[in-house]
Amino acid sequence: DDLLALARLDDASGAVTLESVDLREVAEAAARALRPAAEAADVRIAIDAPWGTGATGNGAMIAQILRILLDNAVTYTHPGDTVTVSAAREGDHARLCVTDHGPGIAPADQARVFDRFYRADPARARHSGGSGLGLAIARSLTRALGGEIELESVPGAVTTVCITLPAAP
């Protein structure tokens, strides 16, 4: 399914329907969808996003990006800790971030985490059952919306992945 999603994004002719999207609404829906996995992992999902924080994008695509980011964050956050989804308007842009408190990502791996099939720790990948395509899909979706995605991580402490999209008028 992940390969098919990437192939479709690669072949897309750029015809994405754009609309005003309330990032708080998308965050609430994504948190509800991931809540069972979070509860099973003893991880709390917190949302720090004011209602009405709008981006110009596609609600379904932004929701898919956020589910990918939340799934990764819940998977790697230590039990008993919290994953935070935040959103804010920054000038002409809206920024949506997911922060987790897990093992972090080594500086040498940070530039490659959005590459297809890249795994910073292959042994952990077998345990989690992932395909190594989630962040590549998130990057492709973000770019299709005219946005950017970036990651900051302090190994052993915190990882934050943010997407920046045009703000809604």
What topology does this entry show?
Elements: H1 2-11, E1 19-22, H2 23-40, E2 44-48, E3 54-57, H3 59-76, E4 82-90, E5 93-100, H4 107-110, H5 122-128, H6 134-144, E6 148-154, E7 158-166
Word description of this protein:
The structure is a single chain. By secondary structure, the chain is of the alpha+beta class. The protein contains six helices and seven strands. It is globular, with a radius of gyration of 15 Å. Residues 122-127 have low confidence and may be disordered.
Q: Residue-averaged pLDDT, rounded? A: 85
Low confidence ranges:
122-127
Oligomer, anyone?
single chain
User: What is the chain-wise order of helices and strands?
Assistant: HEHEEHEEHHHEE
Report on the biggest sheet.
5 strands, mixed
Q: Count of DSSP E strands?
A: 7
Jot down its keywords.
globular; two-stranded antiparallel sheet; 40% helix; 27% strand; 169 residues; alpha+beta; five-stranded mixed sheet; 6 helices
Brief overview, please?
This protein is an alpha+beta fold. 40% of the residues lie in helices and 27% in strands. The longest helix is centred in the N-terminal third of the chain and has 18 residues, at 23-40.
